[in-house]
Every structure is written in C-alpha cells, then in structure tokens.
Amino acid sequence: MKRLIAILLVAVLGLFIYSNLYTEGNGKLFPKFGEVNLSERVSEKYVKKSVNGNESEVVFNETNNAESGSANMVTSIVVNYRSFDTLGEVTVLFVSALGVGLLLRGNSRMKFKTKPNFILRAGVRIIAGIILITGIYIFIHGHLTPGGGFPGGSMIASAVLLFYISDDEFKTKVKAFKFLEGTAGSLYLIFGLLGLTMGGYFLYNFLPTGIVGNLFSAGIVPIVYIFVGLKVGSELSNLISDFLSEEGK
C-alpha cells in the first residue's frame, strides 16, 4: 500500500512539473526553460551586486569597492547578503555535535579487530597532507572560486577520519579542537557585532571590498569563511572522535 501511495505521489508531482514546464498558456508557475526574465527576479540584484541600487557594470579584476566584492556569486549570497542565515547553519551544526558528544563521548579510543597494515598507514600520511592543504586552500579562496568554509572544513575532517581508520592508536587532541571551534565561532560573532556597531546591522561588511577577483578583496567575507572553515573542520573532527570512542577502557 505504501509503495502504491508513493508511486501515485511521484506521478502527480511529475505531471505537475511537466504541465508547468512544457505546456503553453497563462497560469503556469514556471517560465519556459531559458526564457526567464531576470529583471523580474531578485537573483539579478545578487548577480549585478545592485541590491543597494548601484546599477554600474561589475567587471572582473577591474571593479573596485563593489557592493559585495566577492567574485563568487554564491559566496556573496551565503557570507554577505544572508550571512546571518549562515551563522544559524553553523549553530545547528554545533548543537548536533554537542548532542553527539553528550551521548557517545567515551574516555578511550575504540580499537579495530584487524590492525591497519603498513601500506594503509603510509598512504594516508601522504594523501591526508594533500587533503588538508586543499581544504585550507578552498576556504581561503572561497570568495574567488567555488567552495568555502563548509566544504573546506569538511575536507579537513575527512583527513582526520583517514588518520583514525589507518592507525588505531591515533586520537585527536580534543581540547585543542574544542578551543579552535569555540574561538572561530566567537570571532564570527564578534565580527557580526562589529558590523552592527559600524554599519547599523549585524554582520555588515565594514571593510573595503577591494577589486573583484583579487585574493585580498570582499571585505570581511574571506575572513568569515576562514572562521567557518576552522569551526566546521574542528566540529566534524570532534564528531569523528566521539563516534570512535568508548567507555570503560
């Protein structure tokens, strides 16, 4: 019965999408593919960095002090126009990590039944270094290229996971990660309050945005992304440590 209901729901949803995308006439919810009038959409304001009414053309490597100096449009939205929402996402991750820590945290490292071999241990030492450097690169350049704090932090945590599965003696220094996590989160909030003081609203981009496309540009955006990357990386690493710990030994 459940499968029949699921099939009916999928069929109705498919018919709804098809009728709105490919049929002619008025009353359609979606415009025809490729024929969207961007001037009627909020997204155009983000693309042209004209939310505050600045209609001048934005040119890569030329425009100076644009409304949002990030060359990566997604980063402009995530860490500038709706950065307060991103702070909420980071908070959700923190609460999740806190819950796992309260439920699963043990005193000692869980031992594998089969010890990792030498090839695995040696290979991880090489690969994990590359992953760590790439993760840091991703969140430092998040305002220029695809990526940012969340994927960069996740890559750092993936390197920690590799160390865990390749060496059953490996254990992170939890206190150091807790300190890093708390410091990065606090600095995120401090920058938000500085924006409130200088610009009148929380997380206002109060630093010069520079030339679009330069490494040192976009004001507080790359700084916030570094905080997010460090916080996400340390939180996920703590999660891995909690999952691989046990009580009573």
Please name the defining characteristics of this protein:
mainly alpha; 249 residues; two-stranded antiparallel sheet; single chain
Give an overview of the whole structure.
59% of the residues lie in helices and 2% in strands. It has 249 residues and is an all-alpha fold. The longest helix is centred in the C-terminal third of the chain and has 26 residues, at 174-199.
SSE diagram, text form:
Blueprint: H1 2-22, H2 43-47, H3 73-81, H4 83-104, E1 108-109, H5 118-140, H6 149-166, H7 174-199, H8 221-243, E2 245-246
Antiparallel strand pairs: 1-2
Radius of gyration: 23 Å
Overall pLDDT metric: 87
Find the structural class using helix and strand composition.
mainly alpha
Strand order of the largest sheet: 1-2
- What characterizes the major β-sheet? 2 strands, antiparallel
Number of helices: 8
Instruction: List the secondary-structure elements in sequence, H or E.
Output: HHHHEHHHHE
Measured distance between first and last alpha carbons: 48 Å
Instruction: Report the oligomer.
Output: single chain
Approximate helicity band: 55-70%
Q: List segments where confidence is low: pLDDT < 50 over at least 5 consecutive residues.
A: none
The tally of strands reads 2
Form type: globular
User: What percentage of the residues does DSSP assign to strands (E)?
Assistant: under 5%
